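Hi P.,

Sorry for the delay on this. The queue was packed all week, but I finally got your sequence through. Input first:
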Amino acid sequence: MLPAFTCGQYGECDPYNGQCNCPPGWGGIDCLTPQCDSLADGEERHLREDGKKCDCKDGWGGINCNVCKTDDACAKFPLHGDVSSLDDVEPANMTCYKGGQTVFSNHQFCDVTNRKINDMLPGRPPQVTFSCDSSDSTCDFQFWTAQVESFYCALDTCKTEVIPGYDSNTTLYRCDHIKCSCVPGRFICGEDGSVDIGDFLKEEIKGPATFSCKSGAGCKFEEPAMNQLINDIFGDGYITLDCEGGECLHYSQVPGFVRPPKPNNTKWIALSVAGAGLAAISVSALLWYVGRARKSDVGAIRLPDTEVAQLMADHVPATLHFSNISYSLNGRPILEGITGSVRPGQVLAIMGASGAGKSTFLDILARKRKRGLVGGTTLVNGREVLDTEFRKVIGFVDQEDTLMSTLTVYETILYSALLRLPRDMSIEAKQYRTLETMNELGILGIKDSRIGDSGHRSISGGEKRRVSIACELVTSPSILFLDEPTSGLDAYNAYNVIESLVSLARNYNRTVVFTIHQPRSNIVALFDQLLLLAQGRLVYAGEFVKCQPYFDSVGQHCPPGFNIADYLIDLTAANEKEHKSSASPPIGAASPSGDASLRDEERALLPARHESHTSNGGQSSGSGDDETELQVRRTVNDIDNGKSDGFLRRKTSQLIDVVSLFSASHGSDSAPALAPHVAALVDSYATSDVAAAIREDIRATAQPAHGPVGSDELPDVALESTLLRGRKRATWATQFRILSGRAFKNMYRDPALLTFQYSASIALALLCGLFYHNVSNDIGGFQNRLGVFFFTLALFGFSCLSSLGLFANERILFMRERSNGYYSSFTYFTSKVLFDILPLRVVPPLLFGGIAYGLVGLVPTVPAFWKFILTLVLFNLTTASVILLISIACANTSVASLIGTMVMLFNLLFTGLLINRSKVKPWLQWLHTVSFFHAAFEALAVNELRFLQLKEDKYGVELDVPAATILSTFGLRAQSFWWPNISLLGIFFVTFTAASFIVLHFFVRERR
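Then the structure:
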């Protein structure tokens, strides 16, 4: 054990570490240094610096910041005693009690008012601090001059009492024993060799002592020996004081507090919990019923005899001819003079360097909407076909797979069949078509595997690509277009995908057209037709087997053993590089590395045709594709030559090109000049026998649209397909049923959001029941009612922001599926609202209201309860419709989240609690009217408080106030439940829902 150490303020010295355990407000090694900040900070308080005063936190005062001054200062103060039995109060509601009586631990700060003492200490005001602790009946007394402690005393065996009088009250502390000690070197304790009363304090001051305060008359400290000293020296009978005290208490601990009677609503609580449990069980049972496996989903499929032979006959072979296809954007040619053909049973591969125009050309062949001007002629079986008819006989697979991750492979393809195949085709036939298509593409073995996403992998990239192909193939299209079906796949999976397409074309007599970027040799060997582009111009179009002999004939010999696809790509790309080095090209023809090195200010000088435009959902739009049309890829030689000694020259050349192009961009609409060698290749092909044979074939095949079909003529694809399939796809009712089932499956297979919404509603309802339990019928209860209404609306309002992701995650999927004719925007929207939005916005208010209403102790009548529930449901639906509109209108989720938050905060500001409506200027009061938060808040307040009578006891007087009177003081209208509040919520919901559909239908479209 360590030797004993004397601690100031009679603190205890720990015998094991030698440290002083100081009382509150004191610190340092000897407990003689005051602490600052506030008493609520506990052991984290800072020591006062020498020669300085404490800078107390807001709401605290005294020399060592122990005295509370405001209720806010006590907000986070530790709770003394046990009030767990006070179920009708909120434990966090603390107050600063200044009555002077010690409840647990009271602190007072006093100015000495004895005239003679103050006269002897000019500029050094004498002060006293006095504190008591009821747990051990002790008190502490300190004497200060100029906030420097002189001596301190400890009093024990203390008792306190309050003596009421006619016009004043007296608080009296009586302590039997007292001991005092000087602080060496301080005033009257030997400071600068002056008087030292240390021995007097130890030997004479024994007690008893009293400390008393009388309202309006100040305080006094008395002890026989000290009184004699004060009398002999200063002529006063005792020390007189002017004190200010405070103690942080829970308001129920304030002396004189009487707990109001507790209302008995046990039955309501039981009914609420039972109702919430029944609702949760019902929803769980419904989801299980909808999501369970049905016998019709698996097992053998029996087709009607009339449909067995019709399935494969539902396909009309189609020959595709195209001549002089051109495309220009903002007057600048992107594609020019492209001619070719492909027949049933063949695959046409479109190749070219990066930016050669492959994807743009494929979009034009597939009749996708383009922003620029399209020219040329496209024939199907020798006839021109309208766009609406053409889209019925084709399938289009985008470069990126857009599938619903929670569905299985079989379900994904089956939904495509159910939505797009003729309505008079039986369910069994559609299921058979689905399995048949999966078998054609070799994915039948994974039919029960989920698609998965980046966080939950299931099937491989190659399998996912074949699922995307199957979704289009299931409709038995005459022509199938695919944009880079091997993109992002390894060589093995890329070969499997192309092999599936080739087998599809040859075995089932379909026409397949796809773009591909630098395939390996075993994939190239599968091609039937090849179309090669360079800078938007046609270098070769014809049979693949004639490709190498043709290039040999024009002097471009592919080295033996070299992949001809690599050779052709390098041939066009290298010639573009040669042209770039020999002439000063447009910046659009620069290599990707060159553009990447430009700074933002340099990019700003680029002409409009090079700006990046992005469509909804992040997919490249038409102009985004066009941006890359004039770019060429960088070759290995570029990288080898890109040394540091050429950096300055390259940057200078780029800057000159940018400035030159900017100055000439307004008057030049001509296309960039072709590299000499590329121009020679284009001219050589245009005059070749291969090109002439294709042109002659197109002239010979051309027939009048919907003309008579002779024995040697090709069938009219549009007419024949109409006769075979009929024009009508799934009805709106069928679309709605299928989309609703898909939405349910997506919900219960990824239940995180739904589960959290329900769990949070139940948990927060119980939390409200804990803090607002059995609200009283007084002013505090009035405030708590408004508080619980405000909290409830804020909870459901901000939780609706989770709906931003419901449509954002399916935006691209919706645009692709609607573009490909899966369903109408109306059926998608209604199924989304009814079977995705509603489960998240109707059930949680029912759960929350069913639990919280009884626990909080709101008006226990059946009509009031159902009005409460109706208001919450309507408010939640209105808020969800606003968030749905924002999510549909804003493609960027971050922007949508910001806008949604701002809308919520704006409505929250005008709820009626933060801004009094009657104090707002008349020409701005419409802001409260358009706030759906205000409509719901006022409806809840009126429903609860209109007929409530409040009783409050103040200073012995019982006040009886109608709650409607206070409502009007808050600017709330006491007769505004059904109109305008409930009516406005209904109007808001219908308006925002209709606006969401209009934006979805007219503005959320695929743009390429």
